Amino acid sequence: MLRTGALLAAGGATAPLTGCDLFDGDEPPPPPDPLEPLAAEARELAARHRAAIAADPGLADRLTPIADTHAAHADEIHRLIGRPAPSGSPAPQPSGGDRDGLLAALREAEQRGRKAAATACAEAPGERAALLGSIAAARATHVEALK
After folding, report:
1. 45 backbone dihedrals φ, ψ, rounded to 5°
2. Confidence check: pLDDT of 22 > 90
């Protein structure tokens, strides 16, 4: 009788585990792609430009194409890595101050972004280098357009 009770207790203890994902054999999610931070940065740069437009609507003609380019770059990186972009958009950086201050802050962000894209391009395999080189070049032209 003691042996039957022990088996029932053991069977009862393992029964809930069989319904657990632990034994389903699912593979863990793939590791993050090295380009995901660059895509996040592109989305953040687009949000910064849109926040600057909200702070100074007179900059819309100048900044909207740049914001749209960053958004397109983020989409293209996600297409390349085969993962959807996260839902929602990054919270725009608070923008304030005068037009010169807004543009200076955007130039600094673009310069950091250009360096990140150039580094990613240099470290990327050939099939990714063309896109990353294009992104680095676009960010360099954005710096000039913001002067």
Report:
1. -65, -40
2. no
